[in-house]
Every structure is written in C-alpha cells, then in structure tokens.
Amino acid sequence: MRVLLKISGLIDALNNGIGKLVYWLVLVAVIVSAGNAVIRYSLHISSNAWLELQWYLFSAVFLLCAGYTFQRNEHIRIDIFLGRFSKRVQAAVDIFGIVVFLFPMSILIMVLSWPMFLDSYMTHEMSSDAGGLLRWPAKILVPAGFFLLTVQGVSELIKRIAYLAGLIDEPGEKMHGHS
C-alpha cells in the first residue's frame, strides 16, 4: 500500500502543478477578452480567432483543472446529507462514487473523445467561422482533461482505501468541508 500511496502523491503533485499553471490561463483569457473588446470598439477591427481563443482558454481552464478541483475536494457534492455521517462512511461513499460513477463516465468520455481529436488533427480541421482557428488544440483538451480527472480518481481511491485501512489520518486536505 505504501507504493500505492507514493503513486497517489505523484498524481496529486501532477494535478496540483497543472492546476496552478492553468490558473494563469484565466489571466490570459481576461487579457485576450479585454484586448479584443478595446480593439473592436476603438479601431473597429475584429477577428473570430480572438473569440475562439477565449473559448479555447476557458475550455482549458475548465477541463485541465477538473482533477485539481477533485484533489482539493472543491467539486460539487451533496454535503447536506453526507456531512451528517462519520468520515469513515463518507470515505466509503466516496469509494462507491469513484468506482461506480466517476471512472465509467470519465473513461468513456476520454475514450470517445480521442478519435474526434485524432480526426481533427489528421485533417487539420479548421473552424467554419471566417478567420477561425484550428480545432484540434481545443479537441485534445477533452481527453487530456478527463485523463487528469481519471488519474486523480485513482489517487483519491487509494487515499480513501488507505484511510479505511487505518494507514493515513485523513484522505486529503479537506473531506466534505470538514477539516
């Protein structure tokens, strides 16, 4: 189990690093959006590429930070019910949710989105909008984001099993809002 906990730590470090790096894309998106608005209204020049770049940046933040959000236990859940139970029950419910809901959903989306990315990449798919961007950079975000979410699910599963086995005190920074 110690090896699995080390793997969990590596996965946590990966998603933590990506999450902190991707934070900067929010600033880039704000700058692109503001710059696009200023140029469009002051110089009456516009390009669909700037709008699409904003969408790509938002997609990158949303998809690439899903694993980071899960690691930090800041994802949406129904704590009004689960918060009434012991941490052991919460961990057992988390294990069930990860195995029964998270893994099938995230693996399915990851697998089904990969061919769409490959097709887009191989055909050099472009946006149908005038002045639009290549589509594959946006399409790779889907399998990449769900890969990061899936491996974070593996990490969280390891931590919860280790917690129930008495090998660690608590399976994360926060567990259902109770530190």
Summarize the structure.
Belongs to the TRAP transporter small permease family. This protein has 7 helices and no strands. It has 179 residues and is mostly helical.
Distance between the termini: 24 Å
Beta content comes to under 5%
Count of the separate structural domains: 1
Overall body shape: elongated
Subcellular location: Cell inner membrane
Protein name: TRAP transporter small permease protein
Pfam families: DctQ
Family: Belongs to the TRAP transporter small permease family.
Describe this structure in words.
This protein is an all-alpha fold. The protein has one domain (2-164). It has 7 helices and no strands. It has helices at 2-43, 48-64, 66-71, 79-82, 87-122, 136-139, 141-164. It is elongated, with a radius of gyration of 20 Å. Belongs to the TRAP transporter small permease family. Residues 31-161 form the Tripartite ATP-independent periplasmic transporters DctQ component domain. Part of the tripartite ATP-independent periplasmic (TRAP) transport system. The complex comprises the extracytoplasmic solute receptor protein and the two transmembrane proteins. The chain crosses the membrane at residues 21-41, 53-70, 91-116, 136-154.
